[in-house]
Amino acid sequence: MATPPLLNMQQLSVEHAAGHKVLDLDLLTIQPGELIALLGHNGAGKSTLLQTINLLQPFSGSFYLFGHDVKKSNPTLLRRRCALVFQDNLLLNMSVYDNLACTLRFHDTPRQNIPGRIKQVLQDFGCEHLAQRSATELSGGEVQRVCLARAVIGEPELLLLDEPSSSLDVSTRREVIEKIRLYASTHGITTLLVSHLFTDVLNFAQRALILSNGEIIQDDAPEVVMRRPVDEQAARLVAMDNILPCRHTTNNQICLPGNIELSLSHTPISPISHCCLPGDAIFHYNSRVALPATGLICFEAMVERIYPGIGSQRLTLNVNGSLYHARIPRSALDTTDLLHTCQRFAFHRDELHVI
User: What is the 3-state secondary structure (H, E, C) of 261-280?
Assistant: First the structure.
């Protein structure tokens, strides 16, 4: 027997003043234990969706949470099974220990179990040394860790995170995202993470949702969203290296900037205006290495810029006046004498994605 979804929304909409729809979902289903990332530009409806799931927004349509019709259920009881973490610091003006103890008392935790629960969750998030520190004395990174610890200490079935690491530096952000992923996976907590950085998605999620104007425009694995975005907006959200205007001819040819032409392996269903080409799909063509000729697109380019990186190098290529961006493993390319020289590069036709 199939496991019922933890969340099911159908024909759900949320309106703000003057009848303006900020959320308009045909269908959203989330299964128990899923780790999901939600992306979208400012105003796309991400925070509104989290608040609606947490029963903080009036809505129209069908919404089942934990198998219950929320319109016919006690919202307080359902909300206690969720935890919502905002971007802002919402800790109470007391010690870290007391902040967590308040949450446990709210969930009717036996008094004798409180110290052990607090000690364990603070250890899980690497902040046990902060137990007696006042919440007003914490750094940004410490606040985020404590907020996450407070959210999960009540053992929620559903964890809703509204950009919880947006104010952190890169190294701290990566560490916090990994601690969330590990904790949620270990404890089977269904988690929906809002982020504006696709690196967070790759490090965290099994499934990525892209929201635009209150609608879900793509729902897929992060790897698919990264290499096969549904439209130009989605491509920019995932930081696609090359979003190229193109022309589709009547004989199923694609003309790319810089006079690169190729034939598609399939006929697009709808009209196209752009193509996406991941930077790591472009490689330095060395004729001494045997490569399959079928579907290989070769071109000449002037190497205008080289950006050093860890593990790979980013090249800006001038192809007859049009710029392309390549990401090539350091081990595969000696760039010592490449700058401002004309070189041959190539990519496989199947790596080109039309939108």
Answer: EEECCCCCCCCCCEEEECHH
Q: Check: CB of residue 192 under 8 Å from CB of residue 50.
A: yes
Structure tokens at 75: 């919202």
Using alpha carbons, list the distances in angstroms from residue 213 to 23, 73, 219, 279.
7, 29, 15, 28
Q: How many CB atoms lie within 10 A of CB 210?
A: 25
| Structural element, H or E, at residue 100 | helix 96-106
Two tokens at 109?
């935790």
pLDDT tens figures, 256-308: 999 999 988 777 777 888 999 999 999 998 755 556 567 899 999 999 999 98
3-state SS class at 182: helix
pLDDT at site 28? 98
Count of Cβ atoms closer than 10 Å to residue 241 Cβ: 17
Paired tokens of 320: 């007859």
Q: Show Cβ contacts of residue 232 under 8 Å, excluding neighbours closer than 6 positions.
A: 243, 273, 274, 355
Contacts for 149 with CB less than 8 Å, ≥ 6 apart: 100, 121, 122, 124, 125, 127
The dihedral region occupied by 239, where left means phi > 0, alpha psi between -120 and 50, and beta the remainder, is left
CB-based contacts of 27, cutoff 8 Å, min separation 6: 9, 10, 11
For domain 7-237, give the CATH number.
3.40.50.300
What's the topology of domain 246-354?
Answer: OB fold (Dihydrolipoamide Acetyltransferase, E2P) (2.40.50)
The upper half-sphere exposure of residue 76, i.e. CA atoms within 13 Å in the direction of its Cβ, equals 2
Alpha-carbon distance 17 to 130, whole Å? 43
Lowest mean pLDDT among 101-115, 172-186, 230-244: 172-186
